[in-house]
Design brief:
By secondary structure, the chain is an alpha/beta fold. It contains 9 helices and 10 strands.
Length: about 260
């Protein structure tokens, strides 16, 4: 792990963060060219994710939500604009440094869980620690803490195929947190889950937020989105901030209207 990353993590643990901004996007765009057709998946998006925020991004299918999340986490290179993670402009990094930022600063949670099937729950959590060169006792303590947090201590020796969908997603969320990322980016994490299990996963993300984590949650479920403290609406590649008060039902109505007009 780089010295910079260790310092950042130490600073976070002490609560004396280097900056209050986790991720900043400035005029970020992503265009795909296919067969002479240009698709502008994301258009000139400006957004700042503050540390400790829980942000929901909602929008219809194809509006650019996943592309934006990938841009924010350095999984995709923008065709215009800049993304800063923990104050570092991703465009200034070579491939190795970019991979290190992704690994050490960003925790991704995907709809399809993306667990390693041949590894146990515990080994899936050890993987990022090993890749980052975390020493064994630190890693073990962190993994124990996370298994407890997501309620999977008793299932630590199971393989993903032996788990329910909700349990798999809890493993994926724990895995995203192993290296104490600046931000957790979750792309429709309940997309493959039934409504009861979805509720549990969203409750877990809210618990993480209350415990101080920064969470960006992409969803097409307006009821889920309405519960986040900050709501962004994606339409045709563009992002609009949506002011909302604490009355969730009002927000659901407003978003319903917004999505209807697409
Ligand atoms: N790798 C890609 N190549 C070409 N077009 C893409 C690619 N990824 C996404 N797109 C297009 O960009 C637009 C936004 O997609 P996406 O970000 O996946 O939206 P959402 O997550 O909101 O459903 C869509 O029109 C999609 O077809
Ligand atoms: Mg998507």
């Amino acid at each position: 792990m780089t010295t910079m990353v260790i310092e950042a993590q130490d600073a976070r643990r002490r609560g004396t963060t280097m900056s209050t901004v986790a991720i900043e996007a400035r005029g970020v765009g992503k265009a795909y060219d296919e067969d002479d057709v240009r698709v502008e998946a994301v258009r000139r998006v400006d957004v700042t994710i503050q540390r400790g925020e829980m942000v929901a991004i909602v929008g219809p299918s194809g509006s650019g939500k996943s592309t934006l999340l990938h841009l924010l986490g350095g999984l995709t290179t923008p065709t215009s604009g800049h993304v800063l993670v923990d104050g570092t402009d991703l465009a200034s990094l070579d491939d190795d440094a970019l991979a290190a930022v992704r690994r050490d600063h960003i925790g991704f949670v995907f709809q399809a869980f993306n667990l390693v099937e041949v590894l146990t729950v515990e080994e899936n959590l050890q993987l990022p620690a090993t890749l980052a060169g975390l020493d064994r006792s630190t890693a073990t303590a962190r993994i124990d803490e996370l298994l407890d947090l997501v309620g999977l201590t008793a299932l630590r020796s199971k393989r993903p195929s032996q788990l329910s969908g909700g349990e798999r997603q809890r493993v994926a969320i724990a895995r995203a947190l192993v290296l104490r990322p600046a931000v957790v980016l979750a792309d429709e994490p309940t997309g493959n889950l039934d409504s009861v299990t979805s509720r549990q996963i969203i409750d877990l993300l809210h618990d993480l937020h209350r415990a101080g984590e920064t969470v960006v949650l992409v969803t097409h479920d307006i009821k889920i989105a309405a519960q986040a403290e900050r709501l962004l609406v994606m339409r045709d590649g563009q992002l609009t901030e949506h002011e909302h008060d604490s009355v969730a039902e009002d927000v659901v109505e407003v978003i319903d209207r917004l999505l209807d007009t697409t």
